[in-house]
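Contributing new records

If you add data, match the layout below exactly. Sequence lines come first and carry their own label; structure lines follow with theirs. Keep one chain per record. Anything else will be rejected by the validation script.
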Amino acid sequence: MKLFLLATFLLSLAQGLQFNSSGYFTIVQFTDIHMGKNERKDALSQESLRNILSWVKPDLVAISGDGASGDEEALASGWFEAQGNKFTAPIVEAQVPYAYTLGNHDDEGDLTRTQIIRLDQTNPLSLRNQSKGIPGTANFYVPVYASQNNSQLAANLWVLDSGSTGCGDIVEGSGCIECDVVEWEKRRISKN
């Protein structure tokens, strides 16, 4: 039965996200979850995510960076995959599609940013594998369709990566949305 429900859900997901019949589309945003530092805190974070998802029942989860953060132990093979499975487990259990972009701590472990993106694309609930973006980056957008017409675009949700460090010619400090990303977004907006 679970396999049938998952297959039915994935088929509806392939048809695209859509506002509900009342005209609402609910998004829950999680940021700075920082799995990987402390098992007890990780378990509490997972419990909080589960509670929020059961209370809100969103149409989409947005993870806006720092799902994991590492230290010297994070360099062990398989570390990020284990942390990624922890922060997506409540989302997978709730069967909610999600859009994930990287923060400045996600790549502190055994995987590069590109490897993390490839790993994320293997999760059937990740909208990254059904969306258009700048190849080789964490930037993409997700179309959401009108409640009464599943072919009428109602909104685009932009998922943009600010990188881990540096901004343009400035190499110090946190990252930013780079100029080429802004230009890509402008081109995509003008096509819609």
